[in-house]
Write a structure and sequence with these properties.
Elements lengths: L19 H7 L11 H7 L7 H18 L3 E4 H8 L3 H34 L4 H28 L2 H18 L6 H15 L3 H8 L4 H30 L4 H9 L4 H8 L2 H13 L4 H6 L3 H14 L4 H4 L4 E4 L19 H5 L6 H4 L6 H28 L1 E4 L9 E4 L1 H21 L5 H26 L6 H32 L2 H25 L6 H19 L12 H39 L1
Parallel strand pairs: 1-2
Antiparallel strand pairs: 3-4
Helix pairs in contact: 5-6, 5-7, 5-9, 5-10, 5-13, 6-7, 6-8, 6-23, 7-8, 7-9, 7-13, 10-12, 10-20, 19-21, 19-22, 19-23, 19-24, 20-22, 21-22, 21-24, 22-23
Length: 603
């Protein structure tokens, strides 16, 4: 029995379907579509998980399909996912992938605390502190260029496991590094794992029905928000109880409080690794691109069973899953989008996946997404660093190594982090009404404007320790700015996953994510402790305008099948070019005919 069957409850005993022998015999030459699989037999006994009305409905529709097509029933993968609905199976994947997102948020945002702490503890120079903030983004940029294409080559599940494992292992090892250089190496490896997080997100997207996709893909961002809120809580719990003299004594004894802080932030990804191994199967959409129809069908039946459906009735004996599109084969990439599985693989040219992003089919979308992702990362992480600078205070050690201290306004940082819940709620309510593109463009602009106000006000208020009203203004502005920036970034994640088609989704999404990591890498060198906050606000506002304008040009994906929007944009552009060429040819023909007629009359 394959690993897939391990997901089925062991207490259900298999019972043969009465028609299985007849159907199997009739389909002996039909792509193994009629073979009796253990998972099918197990699922066929689970009718008590489904209501009687659902069973009758599915059975009737299945019989109609079989009667019209004989013993072989072709079901498109989008229709198959719709049949699953949204249930326990998808929620398990959402939870596993969501913990990865929480880990990403915590592993990146904890650096805003560590940069201040280690500058004091290790007497670091300004550029060394900036490198602490940038090194994770450097690792993530390399990691996404390696792990994302790997998701299209070896599958989603292995990369999911590798990603979560690397973040968990190297996240814990951070607490045991002896010096600055080792610290940079370990954090680089954490970033390398973080770079593969587009694959868990795409895995979830490929299992969610179109009718539920927009809202449910946004739910994963709630885990990110929880991660960002847990960071100041963990920092307060490990760093905020003791004064700096007691912290120094603990460090002399061998384990500084910041190390406990780092270990706490690694826990979500440890849990995610375990859940990913136990609960997340391979994507059936990816299996179809490899010609593995039977494995895709097995996983869909298991998903139906977990969602409380009768798997055998939902996908009857003789079912074959296909991945058909509305468009003919594209010569620019070599993918045959009108057939699934083995045919699609057979008709694909031997070209590198990265090269396909620069083909006529994907070039425009790739460049637009790269611009948006660079901008969103620059804005989001730039805002996080700005808020940390506004609500923190530190004093470096003297030449004798004494007098160093650091302090954070934990409540203000926590309140600004909690704003992401409201940002997520806002986009959940508007994503299907306003669409992905208008909502994220508006959020980028509003976030940039409030960040500008935050920088201008902080420049005048930050030096007045007794001004409580001024602090409240800064907290309010940071709340609004972070709420808007997070809402915009959520929609950028969702629309990117929806634009690309299956065979290039992980690669395209990963390439865009690499540009985001590039933006995150440069931010700490531009937004530093010595930079005037008014100039910081102006820079982030200008970047927000640029990002909003680019995002406005992305294709709308609301209500469309995965990959349909990007596919349609290319073919619409191609048809327009063909029409222009035809119009030019017609005009040329008319001119030639007129010239010939004039010459004839002259003769």
């Amino acid at each position: 029995m394959t690993w897939v069957n391990a997901f089925l409850p062991s207490f259900i005993s298999p019972s043969p379907d009465p028609s299985s022998s007849t159907t199997t015999e009739a389909n002996a030459d039909g792509n193994n579509s009629g073979r009796s699989h253990p998972a099918m037999e197990l699922c066929s006994t689970s009718t008590h998980y489904q209501t009687e009305a659902e069973t009758v409905s599915v059975s009737v529709s299945s019989k109609k399909e079989e009667s019209s097509n004989g013993n072989l029933v072709d079901i498109n993968i989008d229709d198959a996912i719709e049949r699953l609905g949204m249930g326990k199976f998808q929620w398990e994947i959402l939870f596993a992938a969501g913990l990865c997102f929480a880990a990403d948020a915590m592993e990146v945002l904890l650096l805003s605390f560590l940069a201040v702490i280690l500058k004091v503890e290790w007497s670091l120079e300004e550029h060394q502190t900036d490198t602490i903030l940038s090194i994770v983004f450097a690792g993530a940029m390399v990691g996404t260029l390696v792990l994302s294409p790997l998701g299209d080559i070896v599958g989603r599940r292995p990369v999911f496991t590798i990603t979560a494992s690397m973040i968990a292992v190297f996240g814990v090892l951070t607490a045991f590094v002896p010096d600055y250089k080792t610290f940079l190496f370990v954090r680089f490896m954490v970033g390398f794992g973080v770079g593969g997080l587009t694959v868990p997100f795409d895995t979830l997207a490929e299992f969610v029905p179109t009718s539920h996709r927009g809202t449910n893909l946004l739910y994963i961002e709630l885990f990110w928000t929880c991660g960002t809120m847990l960071v100041p809580v963990a920092a307060w719990w490990t760093l905020g109880h003791d004064d700096n003299d007691e912290n120094s004594n603990e460090e002399e004894q061998g384990f500084a409080p910041w190390k406990s802080f780092v270990i706490l932030c690694s826990i979500p990804c440890i849990i995610s690794t375990i859940m990913g191994i136990l609960l997340v199967p391979e994507s059936p959409r990816w299996l179809l691109t490899q010609g593995k129809h039977d494995k895709a069908l097995d996983i869909l039946r298991i998903a139906a069973h977990r969602n409380g459906l009768n798997a055998y009735a939902t996908f009857p004996e003789g079912t074959r899953i296909t991945d058909k599109s509305h468009h003919p084969p594209d010569s620019s990439t070599g993918y045959d989008y009108d057939c699934g599985g083995a045919a699609a693989t057979k008709n694909k040219k031997n070209t590198p996946l990265w090269y396909d992003l620069f083909s006529p089919r994907w070039l425009k979308i790739t460049l637009l997404l790269w611009g948006v992702w660079f901008g969103f990362a620059f804005l989001y992480y730039g805002l996080i660093i700005t808020i940390s600078l506004v609500f923190s205070n530190h004093q470096e050690k003297n030449e004798q190594g004494q007098g160093g201290m650091y302090d954070f306004d934990y409540s203000a940082i926590f309140i600004s982090a909690s704003s992401e819940i409201f940002g997520l709620l806002f986009v959940v309510l508007t994503v299907d009404r306003w669409g992905r593109v208008p909502t994220q463009s508006i959020c980028y602009l509003f976030g940039g404007a409030t960040t500008l106000l935050l920088g201008l006000c902080a420049h005048n208020i930050i030096n007045d320790d007794n001004d409580d009203s001024g602090r409240n203004v800064l907290v309010f502005l940071s709340f609004l700015a972070r709420m808007a920036m997070f809402g915009a970034s959520c929609l950028t994640w969702v629309s990117t996953s929806e634009i690309f088609t299956t065979e290039i989704r992980a690669t395209g999404h990963g390439a865009a994510n690499a540009m985001a990591r590039l933006g995150g890498f440069f931010v700490p060198y531009i937004i530093t402790a010595g930079a005037p906050l008014s100039w910081v606000g102006i820079i982030l506002f200008l970047v927000s305008i640029w990002t909003a304008l680019i995002s406005w040009q992305l294709p709308e994906t609301a209500g469309k099948a995965l990959g349909e929007a990007g596919d349609a944009l290319y073919h619409d552009h191609k048809n327009d070019n063909n029409k222009k060429a035809l119009a030019c040819s017609s005009a040329s023909f008319v001119d030639t005919t007129a010239t010939t007629s004039d010459q004839y009359q002259a003769l």
